[in-house]
Amino acid sequence: MAKVLVQLGLDPNNVTYDAIFNRLLEIFLHNITLANMFALVGAIFFVATLLTQTMVPLRVANMIGCAFFAAFGALTGAVTTFLLYLLMVPINAYRLRQMLALVKKARSATQGDTSMEWLKPFMTERKYRKGDVLFKKDDTADEMLLTVTGKFLVKEIGVELPPGRLMGELGFLTPDNRRTATIECIENGHVLTITYEKLLEIYFQNPQFGYYFLVLTSQRLLENISRLEAIVAQSKTAAQAAAAEPN
Question: What gap in Å lies between CA 62 and CA 50, rounded to an integer?
Answer without folding.
Answer: 10
